[in-house]
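pls read this stuff:
=====
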Amino acid sequence: PPAPDQTTPPVKPKPPAQQQVQSQRVSFPSGATGISVANQVGPGQIRRYVVNAREGQILSVQVTDSSGGRVDFDILKPGGEMIADASGIVWWESLLQVGGDYAIDVQADQPSDFTLAIKASAQVPAQSGQ
């Protein structure tokens, strides 16, 4: 049996079998607070972008479809739990209560070209003297 101080990671729910998830880690260029990624997605595919953000940052995500289809995204918190108000949407912004890896799952019901803009900005300047 594992030692009492070891914790087993939470089991992430598996996506439905027909969904093909392609995951990619996104990091901001040095000195930048955001990044845009252009890609394609279609039925049965999820383009997952994993971005690391800190507690207290404002994370904003917007998807733009350049091919006239319907592209939207879901956001999952670190640990894989879906954010309640961030499913099937095209724009989202929130002050993060938890730092870690956030997953942005882009999907479409027909083959589509899209641009995903991700920004993370500080909520308040860091206080000095702490």
